[in-house]
Amino acid sequence: MTDQNSLITELKAIVGDTYVVHEPDDLIVYEYDGSVDKGLPLAVVLPDSAQDVSLVVNAARTHRAPIVARGAGTGLSGGAVASEGGIVIALTRMTRILEVDVENRIAVVEPGLVNLELSNAVSGHGLYFAPDPSSQKVCTIGGNVAENAGGPHCLAYGVTTNHVLGMEVVLADGSIQWLGDRTRESTGYDLRGVLVGSEGTLAIVTKVILRLLKKPEAVKTLLAVFKELDDASAAVSGIIGAGIVPAALEMMDDLCIEAAEASVHAGYPDGAGAVLLVEVDGLSEAVEEESEEIQRICRQFGPMEIRTATDAGERERLWAGRKGVLGALGRLAPNYYLVDGTIPRTKLVEVLARIKEMSVESGFPIANLLHAGDGNLHPSVLFDERKPGDTKKALEIGGRILELCVEVGGVLSGEHGIGLEKQEYMPLMFSEADMNAMARLKPAFATGDLFNPGKVFPTGASCADVFQAAVSKVGPGAWI
Amino acid sequence: MTGTPSGEVPLLFSGPDAPSESDLYKCVHCGFCLQACPTYLETGLETESPRGRISLMKAVNEGRVGLTDGVIRHWELCIQCRACEVACPSGVPYGRLIEATMAQVETKRKLGLIPRIVSDISLRRLLPHQSRLGMAVGALRLYQTSGLQRAVRKSGLLRALSGQLAEMEESLPAIPGTTFRATGQVIPARGEVRARVALLSGCVMPLVHGPQMHAITRVLARNGCEVVVPKAQVCCGALNSHVGDLETARNLARRNIDAFLDSGVEAIVVASAGCGSRMKEYGHLLREDLDYAEKAGRLSAMTRDIHEFLVALPFEAPSGTLDYRVAYQDSCHLSSAQRITQPPRDLLQSIPGVEFVELPRASVCCGAGGTYTLTERDFSLRLLDSKMNDVEETRADVVATANPGCLLQLQYGAAKRGLPIDMRYVVELLDEAYRAEDRQ
Amino acid sequence: MVERVFQRPADALGEITNHNDAYSIDGLQPTAVCLSDLQGLSDALSEAAKDGLAVAPWGGGTRAAIGNRPARLDRILDLSRLSRIVHYNPADLTATVEAGISVAELQRHLAEQGQFLAIDPPLPDRATVGGTLAVGGSGPTKWQFGHPRDLVLGMKVVQADGTVVSSGGQVVKNVSGYDMARLHVGGLGTLGVIAEVSFKLTPLPQGEATLVAAFDSTTRCLAAGLAVFHSVVTPLALAAYDAAVDERAHVAPVKGHHLLAVRLGGRPLTLQRALRECRSLCHQGGATTVEALGEADAVAAWRKLADFGWDEATAPLMSARASVPPTKLAEIVETIANGDSPAALRCETLCHVGYGTALIHWFADGPEPPTHAIAEVATRARKAVHAVGGRMNIERCPLPVKAGLDMWDQVGEPIAIMRRLKEQYDPGNVLNPGRFVGGI
After folding, report:
1. What is the CB neighbour count within 10 angstroms for residue C206?
2. Which H helix or E strand runs over A331?
3. Omega into B314 within 30° of 0, i.e. cis?
4. Which of C242, C272, C307 is the last residue of a domain?
5. Are C198 and C213 in the same domain?
6. What CATH number is given to the structural domain containing B61?
7. Distance of alpha carbon C438 from alpha carbon C425, whole angstroms
8. Cα distance between residue C68 and residue A39, in whole Å
9. Are residues B369 and B425 in the same domain?
10. Is any Cβ of chain B less than 8 angstroms from the Cβ of A21?
11. From the CA of B222, how many Å to the nearest CA of chain A?
12. ipTM of the predicted assembly exceeds 0.85
């Protein structure tokens, strides 16, 4: 106990009293992120600089307290949950944009900066930051780096790792180092590259050098409504097959449409079975030519309706149904378990049919929201946690969907990360040797057990225990 | 697994005004509310965020923590701007939750001396009684016009007593000579009668912003509205419910229902965003009141914010010209509680000559928040400071807003920095444009 | 399984008789094993590890000059027969191939389906996919499509002890587990041997066009290139080269002091518009001539630009690759190519504008200058690159120069992590010992 007190005293000496949260009542608000998992930290520290972070790392190491880095806490795989206690380093005070180099299209930012704030700040220069996860209004750049975040527009422009040039990090020994720089080609091993998406297990990022893209001259959004999911899927294949890589290519099934109708009154026709949302951008001629082609392809599959929009307001209305759908699912059932997996695009029809079968067999409705362009599925299993046993069944269905994704050549997570949520599923995709090779990054970065222990890699629980473990983690009001 | 605590855990929230569990457990802690919350933006602390405040409510509800001072402090620091409701994908009714929570803690909280005096005097003894409030404001005007204020400020007496008191004195608004009184008067429409409406005069506005209230009636009349101002109306009760005094709030609501419901109008027009949002929620406030529940629902349904009302009417665009660069600060209780953001902008942009500029982060609270300026002085000023940085960036001549609290706060912010920026109600500018056309 | 152990390269290469390059790295003459399947590669490595041999993976041998002189080298692992297309589904725009397939052969297969892999290394008929990745850099098309590492979805690698490990997957969006492939792209085969790679593919543009513009100064040419980079047009490739490069390689029938080549793609109207924009940007930037190349000329021009410095006809005495912020290209080209030189060497440059890569080649017009003078040229160039915040690696130089000069630029403190990576994945120092940064 005295040890804990002395740790807290040390932390306060580093960042000041206000920025160490340690009262048990207060720590409750740091026990969760956006996922189902929970864990109470010993203390939460809000540093203001890399030097602060370095000192906190040193203090934690001395006291053998693990460290969990946290941004906005919107992650969906438990990456920011202090599952083994310890110190949470919340980077929400480090929100500065340190430099915008318009000519070289580079921004240097702190990790607590909110994703959308960066695009807003550089918008006047005709630039933007491409990765746009659904939580972009709140999630932080540091979190994006840790999880290698994607978003609807990463189909054409790539995920976070494609936009990070360099970063300043604090290593487990407290040293502050730069990995990568302002140039595009690095010398030596691409340490920056392995750090992106390492879920806070290798280092704490304190500054990031990002690539910015120029805003396209024109943008056009098309919305195509189909009676059948299969037709929409076929249209997706048609578009990709025609050599068009749209900026975004999103799809929703009938349940999502129903929910979206109920909440935002998107005005989809009766009996709509699937909605396809396609966005093309670039030169105005390219936008015209590609959107013509996309409409021609969609018409081959008998759409009920095609709408297009070019100005910002109209585009916003077409996107409204898609953007509002997750929140709106609450109107169909009290809880949903949002699954994240990626499959080869060509398996869409097959996988959606099998998910439908699972839904029919189990009696649990499953709503499908897809980044269809890159095969990233977000099936949501709808259930009511108040019915005994239903939570467990819903999680089991989620697990079976992941197994299915891997079976058809896909992966466990497209953009949410492994974290605590999927660590026990890792053996579905990777052999012992594969995981062993990954795990060796920790000694290479000399992390000891300091950074985010107990994440990403399986804990050794048997497959049968996996569901049980998942169930026991689910607390009241969890995001499921 | 049901989200309700097991039987042996004592429920610390109790009674009919306890936060509802179905409201509480709608929150799935996704965090989408964080960037909407002014206190989180200021501190970066999850404890001062909507998600944090809700999880503390859940923790109290589940018996994991008690109603400690520390926990209560985080709720008190909530300015109740309700911007989080707009950001929430799951539709958590945060305003309702914090109001019910504050009602639960009202008996337990230990306020500091100044906040206690302020809340006791202002909320229980003054606001509910227009005549007493009138006298107090009259005395304030006397203080300001007699030269006493100058003398006090020069003497440094207050600063010697308490810096906080001195700052509060400095932020006192200048009281105009013209007041507005609800006497049951009827202001006739100009030209053809297009609607018959009742006007809420409110408690502070008629005294502090009398000339603006007259402007509001002129704008309504100019657009063919016959305006009734019922004499029996009282304060809407918003400030009382913010600090958890639901009983006084309910009493005020009942009196307003009696005063307005049978005045034979098609709408009750409210010029103050805070009052409008309170009255639109009378239905929920009195849901357990057998005699008033239905009437309250009807009154809520009849309540219209003035900007909303004018745009829907639709209003006639003025032809008089105003040569201003105008920015608009969203009043939280208009933009977040009532979800009205476009109508005030439409009104401003309809004025010939006005160059409208968007204020960056217009939807973030200015720190006024009812009695928040008094009870949470430090925080309120921090928020105001951030707001004034944005205001300066716009290089506007005029910042318009839609609520008396916001107006006073912004005026104070401009005065503190010595900025030559006018703070005006949207409708006041509209009135000026109409009057300009009369002169043409 | 191991097929055969060869003593001489000609035997190992079997039917590729027109191939005169030896399996020689910096004058060392190791034995060679030619492998045609994953198991064989695994066996060869575990055998080497057991016998304490130092091995070097070998693709087409086109850029074997890269890196420091090996500390030891006993055996070459020739992967050019490990060249199957494992999986290709055009509708998924992904392919999985064995590392030894030549880039040209893969592109031929993909082109049949209207697709391509956006890498264009020198000498693609011989350069293999695995070798290209291990070396890390690529040709001019990376301008739009990013570094080759951005195209890798998943990778199968054989570790120094023969263990086969996978990471990533075959789909375009994946965050399952650490992104291990990043270590091997540009890792010069020092942590494992790339055996199989899954790639993200790109549809071939419907139409293509290439503009070449001539300028009378380096600065103007690179400024015009940057103007294109900042314009609404997104070219497929953007390269600037000097007159000497053109004289040596006969890139295109357009002459000038410094030349800018812009490769554009798209549907007909898009292409017309892009051509129009780029033409006018070049004219505005002071181009003396702007010409669109015919199809055959364009194909030849881009081939020559990608091959420059690596084919026999243009082989320089020394080459370096500098990576700088794009706006600094003109500055370093001016300093390095047009400044004083401590040795009688002709410097010729080729820049990937917008991406910030400068390929700097030195040729000896007369007799080869003394070793120390050549080293001094390199050192000075590196200094110039550092001055603008960039890095410079030397890609080839006379062997004696290698002895006293690190081919790799400084990597700073992270060298400690890099050394520990080597200890983790190749504790016996089997793979390419001594050739990589810091003597790894």
Report:
1. 17
2. none
3. yes
4. C307
5. no
6. 1.10.1060.10
7. 16
8. 50
9. yes
10. yes
11. 32
12. yes
Tokens 């660069």: give the residue: B325
Q: Which domain holds residue C212?
A: 207-307
Look up the CATH architecture of domain A2-90.
2-Layer Sandwich (3.30)
Of A241, A414, A440, the CB nearest to C175: A414
Structural domain count of chain B: 4
Q: Are A344 and C89 in contact (CB under 8 A)?
A: yes
Residues B388 and B353 in one domain: yes
DSSP letters for C83-98:
--EEEEEGGGTEEEEE
- CA separation for the pair B427, C360 (Å, rounded): 68
CA–CA gap between residue C44 and residue C51 (Å, rounded): 10
> CATH number, domain at C224?
3.30.70.2190
Is B177 a member of any domain?
Answer: no
Strand C237-242 versus strand C258-266 pairing type: antiparallel
- Residues C303, C244: Cα–Cα separation, whole Å: 17
Nearest to B25 among A74, A90, A477 (CB): A477
Task: With respect to residue C433, please indicate whether it lies within any of the assigned structural domains.
Answer: no
**In degrees rounded to 5, what are phi and psi of residue C391?**
-130, 150
What letter would DSSP give residue A345?
G
- Kindly state whether residues B284 and B191 are assigned to the same domain: yes
Q: Which of C175, C276, C328, C421 best probes binding to A when mutated, by most A CB atoms within 10 angstroms?
A: C175
- Confirm or reject contact between A186 and chain C (CB < 8 A): yes
Strand A127-128, strand C85-89: pairing: unpaired
Q: Which of residues 11-50 of B touch A (CB under 8 A)?
A: 24-35, 44-47, 49
Q: Which two tokens stand for residue B13?
A: 């929230």
Please check whether residue C423 lies inside any domain of the structure. Answer: no
> What architecture does CATH give domain A97-214?
2-Layer Sandwich (3.30)
Whether A474 sits inside 8 A of B25 (CB atoms) is no
List, for residues B105-122, the tens digit of each pLDDT value: 876 665 566 666 766 777
Both B66 and B138 in a single domain?
no
- C103-111, long-range: CB < 8 A, 24+ apart: C103/C127, C103/C128, C103/C129, C103/C132, C109/C85, C110/C201, C111/C204
Question: Which residues in chain A have their CB less than 8 angstroms from residue C91's CB?
Answer: 237, 240-241, 345-346
Q: Which of C89, C166, C174 sits opposite A434 (nearest CB)?
A: C166
What is B282-344 written as a DSSP string?
A: HHHHTTT-TTTHHHHHHHHHHEEEHHHHHHHTTPPPP-S----EEEEPPPHHHHTSS---HHH
- What is the residue-level pLDDT of chain A in tens, covering all 480 positions? 447 899 999 999 999 999 999 999 999 999 999 887 899 999 999 999 999 999 999 999 999 999 999 999 999 999 999 999 999 999 999 999 999 999 999 999 999 999 999 999 999 999 999 999 989 999 999 999 999 999 888 888 999 999 999 999 999 999 999 999 999 888 999 999 999 999 999 999 999 999 999 999 999 999 999 999 999 999 998 998 888 999 999 999 999 998 888 877 878 888 899 999 999 999 999 999 999 999 999 999 999 999 999 888 888 888 888 877 877 787 788 888 899 999 998 899 999 999 999 999 999 999 999 999 999 999 999 998 888 999 899 999 999 999 999 999 999 999 999 999 999 999 999 999 999 999 999 999 999 989 999 999 998 754 444 444 444 333 333 333
pLDDT, tens digit (0-9, with 9 covering 90-100), for A82-125: 999 999 999 999 999 999 999 999 999 999 999 999 999 999 99
SS3 assignment, position B200 = strand
Question: Which residue range is the domain that position B81 belongs to?
Answer: 21-105
| Predicted model pTM | 0.91
Task: Verify whether the Cβ–Cβ distance A30 to B46 is below 8 Å.
Answer: yes
* Within a domain: C430: no
Which C residues in the span 206-225 are in contact with A, Cβ-Cβ below 8 Å? 206
Question: Rounded distance, CA C167 to CA C180, Å?
Answer: 6
Cβ atoms within 10 Å of B142's Cβ, excluding its own: 12
| Tokens at B147, concatenated | 């030269």
C377 & C322 share domain? yes
